[in-house]
Design a protein that fits this description.
InterPro entries: PbH1 (IPR006626), Pectin_lyas_fold (IPR012334), Pectin_lyase_fold/virulence (IPR011050)
Shape: rod-shaped
CATH class of one domain: Mainly Beta
Strand order of the largest sheet: 3-6-9-12-15-18-21-24-27-30-33
Protein name: Parallel beta helix pectate lyase-like protein
CATH architecture of one domain: Sandwich
Structural class: mainly beta
Number of helices: 3
Radius of gyration: 56 Å
Length: about 700
């Protein structure tokens, strides 16, 4: 291999520092391997800790500064730029107990490869302003800074198969620094990061065009290092832009396992043109912030699976196919996905399982779907509620259902006494061309509510077509309508068995099925109900005439009185409210029915008149004397013979003329020549009278 001589310092008999400078040329393709560097740190914590004790000794194991770097000085006041250094290889290097960066590689042209190296109780092995960096198969343990810092100005970065544990700050720093932009064209895959004080992987300060995939990240709920706790940067993966409106861009973050993040599984701010998919995020968030205050369900910046920062802006960001899990016996997670600003982001096919504390999971489908392919939003697990927004265009149909047939809910998260949840229906190209709405609203308390179905100047039908059995015709004012029934009507019946009862807003027909004593129906204060509240009060026992049903308002009057009564067997009353007092119809039980074609007089038959009529004695009208009989000449009517006493009997004793004539006709006789007083000889004789005629010799003057 190429070789070169370097100034060295012995620390405990081990090579302490290897440093390039302009007086020592490093040939192309230089290889350093199988070397151990030991520093002077004397504190070896087993949890993320930034403060360390040390004795005098070297700060670095290997420090290289080449001409590809553009900065003038590093953090230690040393020049970052040096001679042309090309293709540096570090293999099986071990650096222990170093007070500062164990290896610092600045400005290398061509390739730089660090492989199979170990760094224990040092600061972060660091790379900046290199043309190509490959970090593979290396390990950092107990760093009092980051694990590995693949920092500003690096191009073509590969970070594969490395391990970081107990780093005080970030596990893998793939970020810019100060005002410098982060690396570009990078791959970070197959790494294991455990127990870090801040984010396991930090993608900060506008890095661009890279893949973060197939990493196992377990932050261990640390909020900063011991002695310097804080909430900043304590997500499992942190992504953000830089000042001057520089966004992170072109990222694929996929198939990572993120467990026990102290703040959010993934925290995002200022990101463009990115896909975040295939994550398995387990139990993000903890109970307390760094200052000891408890994290609440209402907090918007902590305890989320994936959190898109409120102040951030985004474009062309898709979050899809992620699995978000809350499995702790006492749930501490808030929202699976927190997305306060929907602009520039799309959510698809994300699944949340377990008892997330905040129930309004924002999981959005915004995909173009091929014809015949249904879109399914499936929430597995417990009773987690779902907030869904649909924007259906074209002639497609939308069907809502739960796979198990359970109820779908429209939910308002407002705690106001006037909270409402409304589903608006529109038609046409204009989304605001509303034709109807379904609104659920709270009526001043948590136990009383109203559900309103409102057709906006249209018809609401119970089935398709104009011959529906039920319809509501809306009015343009949107406050009135007409209800039509094309079939039978069934009303709610409340059966009351021999007891008092207080009417509720959802009662309609209130019927007593048994009465052994008078019972009272109490009506609520009319001002607490809608004007027009109506009840039918009925006696089904047939005993109300003996045991009256008294209807009495709790406040106000009914028909201007303190009460009204159902006092007839099988009687009923219609009762309604005007919003202040109560009114009722009269009890019509036992009233006379109108005969068809007849009418009832308005002159009511009173009890006084009934008493007067009952006092008239039998035959009281048969009291007329002879003087009261009418003269026939003034009597224009007719009168039966039976009304004159004894007249018929007197007439029966007289011989009628018709009978006399009949007897006379029955006698035949022969008259002889009349001489003097001599009569003719009769040939036939019957008892009776002789017939008188002109030729008779019988003297008829009798």
């Amino acid at each position: 291999m190429p070789s070169a001589s370097f100034p060295t310092s012995d620390v405990e008999g081990v090579l302490g520092i290897l440093r390039s400078d302009p007086t020592h040329e490093i040939p192309d393709g230089f290889v350093c391997q199988n070397v151990t560097f030991v520093g002077s740190v004397t504190t070896f914590p087993t949890v993320p800790t930034s403060d360390r004790d040390r004795t005098p000794g070297p700060f670095h194991g290997i420090k290289i500064n080449g001409s590809f770097a553009s900065e003038v000085q590093d953090d230690f006041g040393q020049p970052t730029s040096g001679p042309l250094i090309r293709d540096i290889y570090l293999n099986n290097i071990k650096v222990k107990n170093m007070a500062s960066l164990p290896t610092t590689i600045f400005g290398v042209s061509g390739r730089h490869v660090t492989s199979n190296c170990e760094f224990e109780y040092t600061k972060d092995a660091g790379w900046a302003f290199n043309e190509e960096v490959i970090l593979i198969g290396s390990r950092s343990y107990g760093s009092n800074d980051n694990g590995f810092s693949l920092s500003r100005g690096n191009r073509k970065v590969v970070c594969v198969g490395n391990t970081v544990e107990n780093a005080a700050l970030y596990g893998i720093w793939l970020s810019g620094y100060n005002s410098s932009i982060g690396p570009t064209k990078f791959t970070c895959t197959g790494n294991t990061v455990i127990d870090t004080g801040r984010a396991c992987i930090n993608l900060d300060l506008g890095l661009s065009y890279g893949i973060i995939a197939n990493n196992y990240l377990n932050q261990g709920y640390h909020r900063g290092p011991v002695g310097h706790v804080g909430d900043i940067g304590t997500d499992g993966i942190s992504i953000s832009g830089a000042s001057g409106n520089v966004h992170a861009t072109g990222l694929l973050v996929t198939n990572n396992v993120i467990k026990n993040a102290a703040r959010n599984g993934i925290g995002i701010k200022e990101l463009d043109n990115a896909l975040i998919s295939g994550k398995h995020i387990i139990n993000p968030g903890m109970q307390y912030r760094a200052n000891g205050t408890e994290i609440l369900v209402a907090d918007t910046d902590s305890g989320h699976g994936i959190s898109m920062n409120t102040s951030g802006t985004y474009s062309n960001v898709r979050v899809m196919g992620n699995n978000l899990v809350e499995s702790r016996s006492t749930p501490l997670c808030n929202l699976p996905i927190y997305r306060p600003n929907t602009s520039g982001t799309r959510m698809a096919r994300n699944e949340a399982t377990g008892a997330w504390r905040a129930k309004n999971n924002t999981l959005t489908i915004n995909d173009a779907v091929m014809p015949g392919s249904p879109v399914v939003l499936q929430m597995a697990g417990d009773d987690t509620s779902v907030e869904v927004q649909w924007n259906m265009r074209g002639s497609g149909k939308l069907a809502l259902r739960n796979a198990d047939g359970s109820v779908l809910n429209l939910h308002s998260t407002s705690t106001s006494n006037a909270a409402k949840a409304t589903m608006l229906m529109s038609a046409g190209a204009d989304d605001t061309d509303y034709i109807g709405a379904v609104t659920a609203s709270r009526n001043g308390d948590t136990t009383s509510s109203t559900v309103a179905i409102r057709p906006f100047g249209n018809n609401l039908l119970a089935s398709d077509g104009t011959a529906a059995p039920f319809w509501v015709k809306g009015m343009p004012s949107n406050s009135r309508g007409i209800i039509g029934f094309g079939g039978g009507q069934v009303n709610w019946r409340t059966a009351v068995d021999n007891t008092a009862y207080t009417a509720n807003a959802n009662d309609y027909l209130i019927a007593w099925t048994n009465l052994t004593a008078g019972r009272t129906l109490t009506l609520k204060d009319a001002s607490t109900l809608e004007a027009g509240q109506t009840y039918i009060v009925a006696d089904e026992s047939g005993l109300a005439s003996t045991h009256n049903i008294t209807i009495a308002p709790l406040v106000g009057t009914i028909n201007g009185a303190v009460n009204v009564k159902v006092a007839s067997n099988y009687g009923q009353l219609l009762v309604w409210s005007d919003g202040t007092n109560w009114h009722s119809s009269p009890d019509l039980s036992g009233k006379v029915d109108v005969v068809v074609g007849k009418g009832l007089s308005s002159n009511y038959y009173t009890t006084v008149e009934q008493s007067k009529l009952a006092g008239i004695a039998a035959l009281a009208t048969r009291n007329a004397t002879d003087a009261d009989l009418r003269d026939r000449t003034t009597h224009i009517g007719t009168q039966s013979i039976t009304t004159v006493t004894g007249l018929q009997a007197a007439l029966d004793g007289k011989l009628s003329r018709s009978l006399s004539d009949a007897i006379a006709d029955a006698v035949n006789y022969t008259l002889g020549t009349t001489t003097g007083t001599k009569f003719g000889t009769a040939t036939t004789q019957k008892i009776g009278f002789f017939k008188c005629n002109a030729s008779s010799a019988v003297d008829c003057d009798y």
